[in-house]
Write a structure and sequence with these properties.
Strand content of chain A: under 5%
Oligomer: heterodimer
Order of helices and strands of chain A: HHHHH
Number of domains of chain B: 4
Largest sheet of chain B: 3 strands, antiparallel
Radius of gyration of chain A: 16 Å
Helix content of chain A: over 70%
Number of helices of chain A: 5
Order of helices and strands of chain B: HHHHEEEHHHHHHHHHHHHHHHHEEHH
Strand content of chain B: under 5%
Largest sheet of chain A: none
Mean pLDDT of chain B: 53
Number of strands of chain A: 0
Structural class of chain A: mainly alpha
Number of helices of chain B: 22
Distance between the termini of chain B: 95 Å
Helix content of chain B: 55-70%
Strand order of the largest sheet of chain B: 1-2-3
Low-confidence stretches of chain A: 1-5
Shape of chain A: elongated
Shape of chain B: elongated
Radius of gyration of chain B: 39 Å
Distance between the termini of chain A: 25 Å
Mean pLDDT of chain A: 71
Number of domains of chain A: 1
Structural class of chain B: mainly alpha
Chain lengths: 98, 576
């Protein structure tokens, strides 16, 4: 089978040995950790004015991509934060599996 | 109580005198303990090169010195009371405060390694007790215990510590077995936790009710703020008593130790958030080791997932608590806002960084190159948005553009129950597709070999991709309509109808019963379904059915409206 997107993610995170259902669950759970870790670190870094605007955004039905874009633009080092959290995830899974 | 209140003059009772006499016997031990601490602190202080650390230790040193001074003053007063009760009626002039002092000076407390820490306030008008000193990270939080009048301090005679014998003094109370102090109990429990031993009910209750004391005791066990998750799990393994529950429990206990260190660090105003995060990172590393052990034991990811999730959430909460209420609420709202997209969280998190975005682009590119194999609807979806991204990418910020295009459509179809179902369906389809792909690959290889054998000119990568794309879209278009290959005649009719309608406004197909639109000349035109040919009507029906089918059974879910679907169909169309 040619590698598809999901499979390549599975390969990237080195969880191919798990049953398919577990792969999905792992990715799902880990993604939740990344999300929460990222937000916990990033949101407090919003400058005051941006935080006010951010609060307003949260009250609306604005899309997720817009919120993330907003955080990217307003939180210094946002990408690095996400990168670190993802890297941690990768490392954890590799260590746990090795 | 007010410091200005005059001391009430009264003669202490014999019982009080006796008690004060006993208290005074503890003074030498107290002073000895304090001297020992002062010596240790001075040693550490002299080795410290970090200014902040030096300042912090120096503060502790001064506090201890103040405590020593206070205790000596109290000792003087105690002796004075015993020797001259009529001159110094009470210890402090306040019965309630006396009680507190008695607790501070109680003989059983002298057995503790940790003396109660007492310092003089700057005006020397109040005696202040602080929590036990923990060498690693601690800034004591003063609690006012009792006032002492300057007059008393100045007039108190110098004494020789120890019991004073006077004719009136009753015999000393018989020595009874000393009850364990809170500190010693905490030390014992902390040690048990460290060793991975289980706690009995009483100890569990103690842990619940005396967390602050246990926290300080644990700090001694987690020397240098080193979490020990991996260590305890490893120790459990070494003991050859390694049921998964034990390891998991050890992890939990280690977490408590870590959190204790974390809490202590947090109380120190000098600890900034970066340092807390560094603690967390250290803890993560150790947790991984523990999880590694669990993995070895279980070969199951259940504990892996549960442990990681629980640990992380607990620690995030600790960090979160350091933020202001306002920030905390903001974070919680954010998490809630993003919470519903659990299923896709991984994907968008993955795609959020430059490195991973690049990876993501590469993955999609590769996927598109392999698109003829028809390997999954998810890829199809990604392909569409990759195309859109390519078309609209801003040269200055390709990252944002990619995210805008890729993340937004993902969150609905992949989130929640619908997303879960789609995800599962997608997986089944992938598995089924695998077999088909293997067959297709064989055929393609055979065809390629035939072309080479026939001397056919090899296609460039671009030509190959274009050809594959056409094949794929054609196949998708066809199978999307009826779920099966059309006959030659059906295909011919469909293509003819398609060619007739593909350049017409999309909204014509949104409501075939009756629709009003403006034509190219700007004139308003109203059309009904009967205005279309049967082939056109049939084609509309097929598009609508195909859309419904996709809605029900593909990872796209409701991520694409019928209008978008028609637009996509028109855009990509059945290519010849």
């Amino acid at each position: 089978m040619e590698p598809n997107f999901l499979q390549q993610l599975v390969t990237k995170f080195d969880i191919a040995d798990y049953p398919v259902e577990e792969q999905h669950k792992i990715l799902d759970e880990m993604s939740q950790i990344i999300m929460e870790s990222t937000l916990t670190r990033a949101v407090p870094l919003l400058p005051v004015e941006a935080a006010v605007e951010y609060d307003k955004m949260l009250e609306t039905d604005v899309g997720i991509s817009e919120i993330f874009t907003f955080l990217q633009l307003n939180v210094p080092g946002f990408d690095e934060i996400v990168s670190e959290e993802v890297a941690t995830l990768e490392k954890m899974l590799k260590i746990a599996k090795s | 109580m007010s410091l200005e209140n005059p001391l009430e003059k009264r003669i202490p009772t014999q019982e009080e005198i006796s008690e004060i006499g006993k208290l005074s016997t503890s003074i030498p031990e107290k002073i000895k303990n304090i001297d020992s601490h002062l010596h240790n602190l001075e040693t550490v202080l002299n080795k410290t090169t970090n200014k902040n650390e030096y300042d912090r230790l120096e503060t502790m040193f001064n506090q201890l010195e103040g405590m020593k001074k206070s205790i000596m003053e109290i000792s003087s007063k105690a002796t004075d009371v015993v020797q001259n009760p009529e001159l110094v009626p009470t210890l402090t002039g306040d019965a309630e405060m006396d009680e507190i002092f008695r607790a501070q000076l109680a003989p059983e407390n002298t057995t503790s390694i940790e003396p109660a820490n007492i310092e003089l306030a700057s005006d020397e008008s109040a005696i202040v007790a602080i929590p036990p000193v923990v060498e690693e990270v601690k800034t004591p939080e003063p609690v006012v215990v009792s006032p002492v009048s300057n007059a008393q301090a100045q007039t108190a005679p110098t004494i020789t510590p120890g019991p004073t014998t006077t004719p009136e003094q009753p015999p000393q109370a018989p020595q009874t077995p000393q009850q364990p102090t809170l500190e010693s109990q905490a030390q014992m429990i902390a040690q048990k936790i460290k060793n991975g031993d289980s706690l009995n009910q009483e100890e569990s209750d103690f842990r619940k009710n005396n967390w602050g004391i246990l926290e300080a005791a644990m700090m001694k066990n987690v020397e240098q703020v080193k979490p020990v998750a991996g260590t305890t799990a490893a120790q459990a393994l070494e003991k050859n008593s390694t049921p998964v529950e034990n390891i998991s429990r050890n992890l939990q206990q280690s977490r408590e130790e870590y959190v204790a260190a974390f809490l202590v660090a947090r109380k120190n105003p000098a600890t900034n958030k970066d340092q807390l995060l560094a603690l967390k990172a250290t803890y993560d590393e150790n947790t991984k080791k523990g999880i590694d052990e669990i993995w070895e034991q279980t070969k199951s990811k259940k504990f892996l997932i549960d442990s990681l999730r629980d640990e992380h959430r607990a620690l995030e909460k600790e960090i979160l608590e350091r933020d202001t209420d306002e920030t905390k609420a903001r974070i919680e709202k954010s998490i809630k806002k993003f919470g519903f997209i659990t299923g896709s969280a991984f994907l968008y998190s993955l795609l959020l960084t430059g490195k991973l975005i690049n990876d993501g682009v590469e993955l999609v590119k590769k996927g598109i190159n392999k698109i003829t194999s028809g390997n999954g609807k998810a890829l199809e979806l990604l392909k569409k948005h990759y195309d859109t991204m390519k078309a609209s990418a801003k040269a200055s910020d390709p990252k944002a553009s990619f995210l805008d295009q890729l993340i937004n459509p993902l969150h609905k179809p992949w989130g929640g129950e619908t997303g879960k179902r789609s995800f599962e369906l997608g997986t089944k389809q992938q598995e089924e597709a695998a077999k088909k792909e293997a067959d297709a690959a064989k055929k393609a290889a055979a065809l390629e070999k035939k072309k080479v054998d026939n001397g056919a000119k090899e296609k460039t990568p671009e030509e190959l991709e274009k050809s594959q794309m056409k094949d794929f879209l054609k196949k998708s278009f066809e199978s999307g309509f009826e779920g099966k290959q059309m006959t030659t005649k059906e295909e011919k009719d469909t293509l003819r109808a398609w060619n007739k309608i593909k350049d017409k406004p999309v909204h014509l197909f949104m409501n075939p019963e009756k629709v009003t639109y403006k034509n190219n000349a700007g004139e308003e035109v109203t059309k009904k379904v009967s205005d279309y040919s049967k082939a056109e009507q049939g084609l509309y029906k097929k598009i609508k059915d195909a859309y419904a089918d996709r809605q029900a059974s593909t990872p796209m879910g409701d991520g694409m409206t019928l209008e978008q679907f028609i637009k996509e169909s028109i855009k990509n169309g059945p290519l010849k």
